[in-house]
Specification:
2 copies of one chain form a homodimer. Chain A is α+β, with helices and mostly antiparallel strands. Chain A has 6 helices and 6 strands. Chain A has helices at 2-11, 18-29, 36-46, 52-64, 110-113, 130-134, and strands at residues 69-74, 77-81, 88-92, 98-101, 103-108, 117-128. In chain A, strands 4-3-6 form a 3-stranded mixed β-sheet. In chain A, helix 1 crosses helix 2. The first copy, chain A, is globular. The mean pLDDT of chain A is 95. Strand 5 of chain A pairs antiparallel with strand 5 of chain B. Chain A binds a DNA duplex through residues 15, 17, 19-20, 35-37, 49-54, 56-57, 60, 75-78.
DNA sequence: AATATTAATTGTAATCATTACAAATTTAAA
DNA sequence: TTTAAATTTGTAATGATTACAATTAATATT
């Protein structure tokens, strides 16, 4: 697994250091789109010398190399996604959990965006998840 | 015009003070979704005593009363929208302008969000606008 | 292998948007 | 008019992110 990650980073022009590999692996294994804080707090157990700056630097590098996308739902917390294909996110107001969902199709009125170049598309919903509704 | 705004605020349980009225009016007339800074800098010419805190307080109040929605495209700048009907936003990476566009339909795979309660839907694109592409 | 060069990581301080809070002002009620 | 309640304001605090310089690790050169 870790071998695959190294390869994937290399293929995208990223030298696979320990920190980079672990951070990318964490994102792959935790598909709930953790915040930088969560990632740092978990990974520092593994890599005691880890700095939060490194986490930020690494994500900025991953972004430049287009192997992750940014998820901006709340103003004050950035999350990241290792799945760069187009899909939607649902964030529960109650528990804070972020869920992925598939988008089949979006039909928009093209009049306004005619001759615009669209590079990124983001769709997210907010509300209450099934588990929180039960309570 | 200003009369209508007062009425609209009252109808939604908001006492229409000078500041609130001007801020709401500004949002109605500037459909490009200005940031708090832009709004403050423009309105302070009109209301010299205006405080940026008031702008923030007012938007938070408007949000509670559901007469505006928040637009979170970039992590570090919150924008607001007086049009609370569902529509999309396009932000140009080059000039920073935010455009509205109409959404006809969105089809998603409902499996994951079955039994979820969806309260808000947000769709935004990023790229280059027509004007910036010409250059 | 030893040294020089370059790249990556780290810690601390700075930045900047937003909020907390208490004082001052304005509005409404008695 | 006096009193109470609501609104606005300015300043300080917060918290996420970035700038930057120093340290450490990796790579290239002799």
């Amino acid at each position: 697994m870790s071998k695959n990650i190294s390869e994937h980073l290399k293929k995208n022009g990223i030298k696979p250091s320990l920190q980079r590999t672990k951070i990318y692996e964490y994102l792959i294994e935790n598909k709930n789109h953790p915040t930088v804080d969560q990632i740092y707090n978990d990974l520092v157990k593994d890599i005691p010398t880890l700095s939060k700056t490194t986490v930020y630097n690494t994500f900025n590098l991953f972004m430049e190399k287009n192997i992750i996308t940014i998820i901006t739902i709340e103003e004050n917390e950035t999350r990241y996604d290792a799945d760069t294909t187009f899909h939607g996110h649902f964030k529960c107001d109650e528990c804070g959990e972020v869920y992925d969902f598939d988008i089949d199709d979006i039909q928009i009125n093209k009049d306004i965006l005619k001759d615009f170049q669209i590079n990124e598309r983001h769709l997210y919903f907010k509300g209450k998840c099934k588990d929180c509704l039960k309570k």
